[in-house]
Amino acid sequence: MLVISLTVSCSKDNSEEIGNDLTGVNATYNMMVDYNDKGSQIPELTESNYLFESDLYTFYLKTEINKLETKINNWAEIAPKNPKYEEVQADIKKAKESLIGLYENLENIKPLIGIKPPRKPRPCLGKDNDAIPCINPKRFSLLVTTDDVEILSLSLSDSKNNTIAVNNSKETHQPLPEYKNLLYYTSVQLKEIQPMVEATLSIQKQVKGKTFIYKVPVMVRQD
After folding, report:
1. Its domain of life (predicted)?
2. 217 pairs with which residues across the strands?
3. pTM for the full predicted model
4. Which of 29, 74, 130, 185 is the most buried (most CB within 10 A)?
5. What is the DSSP string of 163-205?
C-alpha cells in the first residue's frame, strides 16, 4: 500500500473562493493507493468489469452433466436385441463414471462465505436461445477466483478461432485486499471486437495441485 500525502496551504486570496476563512492554515490529506506485488494498482470490482471463475466452471460442469445425462437416457432406450446393445452398455457405464467425476467437481467448488462482491453481470441468450455468460467489451478486464484457484492461462476466441483476448501474465493470481484476500484476480487484455458476437473462453486453472482445462461460450454484449 502506498500513502500519498498532499499538503494544501490557504492564503487570504484563495480562502474566499473556498467560502471559509482558512487563511494561514496548512491541511495535509493522506490518499491510500493499493498496489500488488507486481507494482500495479489493484483494480476495483464493478458490476461489469469482471467474470467470476466459479460461475463459469459451474456453467461448464452443468452443461457437460446435462449432455451426458441426455446421452444415457437415449442409450437406455436401445433394446437388448439391437446389435449395438453391448457396445452401448459399455458407453453407458463409461458415461456414468464421468458423471460421478463431474458431480464431485461441482460439489468441490469453494463457496463464498463472509464476502459479497458486486452484482454479477446478467446472462445473455446464445445462438440456441440458452442463457450463457456475458461480457462487455468496453469494461471487461478481470477474471476473479477464490483463493484456492490459480489461473494458469486464459484466452477468448471468436467463431473463426481468432484470439480476441488473453490474460496479462503480469497480473495473474493477485489478491484483492478489499475482500480479505479471499478473492484473487487475473487481468485480461481484450482486443477490439464487435458486440453481440458469441465467443469461446478457454481457461486453464490449478486447484490443489490438479490442473483443469475447460471451455465455455460467452456472448460479447454492448450495453
Report:
1. Bacteria
2. 200
3. 0.77
4. 185
5. EEEEE-GGGSSEE-GGGTT-EEEEEEEE----SSEEEEEEEEE
